[in-house]
Amino acid sequence: xxxxxxxxxxxxxxxxxxxxxxxxxxxSFRIERFRRSDYVAHGPTALQKAYRKYGxxxxxxxxxxxxxxxxxxxxxxxESGEVSATLVQGGSxxxxxxxxxxxxxxxxxxxxxxxxxxxxxxxxxxxxxxxxRTVYDPTQSKTFKSLPFPSNYFEDAYGxxxxxxxxxxxxxxxxxxxxxxxxxxxLPTEVSSEFEEDTGSDxxxxxxxxxINSIVPGPQKTFFDNVESQxxxxxxTTLLRxxxxxxxxxxxxxxxxxxxxxxxxxxxxxxxxxEFDVGNFKAGDVELSNGATSKAIADTGTxxxxxxxxxxxxYYQQVRGSSLSQSANGYVFPCTADLPDLHVTLGDNSPVxxxxxxxxxxxxxxxxxxxxxxxxxxxxEGPDGLQVFGDLFLRTLFVVFDKRGPSLGFASPK
Length: 414
Ligand SMILES: *[C@@H]1O[C@H](CO)[C@@H](O)[C@H](O)[C@H]1NC(C)=O
What we know:
Layout: H1 2-10, E1 29-35, H2 43-53, E2 56-57, E3 68-69, E4 94-100, E5 103-110, E6 117-118, E7 145-146, E8 153-157, E9 163-175, E10 178-191, H3 193-197, E11 203-206, E12 215-216, H4 223-227, E13 235-239, E14 246-250, E15 258-268, E16 275-283, E17 286-287, E18 294-298, E19 305-307, H5 309-316, E20 323-325, E21 330-333, E22 342-346, E23 350-354, E24 360-364, E25 374-377, E26 379-381, E27 388-389, H6 391-394, E28 398-402, E29 407-413
The structure holds 2-acetamido-2-deoxy-beta-D-glucopyranose.
């Protein structure tokens, strides 16, 4: 516990909130998101990451679909044991710049979780080839404040035994030139292998609701909560692209970024997520569901589009030669197959189309001996019926995450 000793020596006792700072109101700011150059799309890994994040565990020794819920983290598992509120990130595809205590990092902006954390001088990290990470050094920050450990800590624990654990710090965090002076964030000392290997990302900025923030003894506010008083409007908009410039903008809805009208759907934040109603699903002209309403989570930190098993199996019935592959842990299809467009209605009745070509996520080899690679679908079954609309879905749209309501707005990007 060498790092603990250093940390305790470093500890300045944190004197409640210091003098209030004057905050300029009515701002907005934009941040670019860029694709990591070393990122390689891999369907099974992306799916596993999403399952882990939502507290589920794929059991590789038993057939597909027999994954179990993680009940070990009982304090944050809801009554039904359905969704763990603890979250993990690994293998982030895209990152954006964030300044903490004057030091700059590339972090993953995640609307599907609520804790900010950063790799730091205390993190026990192996030396890896191609590691481009920058670690936060609290001793180099004049504005860092620590909180006493172990009465304060942060922890994300998962069903497969992986975890992320460490101290809690407070510092000035700036995104797009706008600063929050007392942002609480996690300083992991120990991270599991998924995080160790994710060498292009220095940490994560959680942008979901504070009820699922994983700082102990109590949930703390997200950067989005803290910056709200400085914003013109309490909104975050996303314009995500596969390649080229992607943008997050806080504080205003830039009407020049989309065409037509913005369809607004109300958000149910009771589970801490940006969760909204979806109705009908269609593959091309074929109805996949009876139109009954279900819920989906808008998550910039998940790569794939995850829907209920009925919808997903009905979709792949429309794809010649597709199958649910145990070795790929998901639906695969011959790379020459035609993928129909996926139509989904959001909220009351706002239609959105995900072009079939976007649902061709990656190629994979099913077994080491089989020569022909197959293609892995970007539409896959969500863990335990949970529908998570990640990047593959969000990329087709200009999206407004609006704290008023709260609500989500969707429109076609310009
Ligand atoms: C899917 O993508 C692979 C490359 O990743 C390509 O070879 C294949 O033709 C594509 N298939 C379809 C149906 O778009």
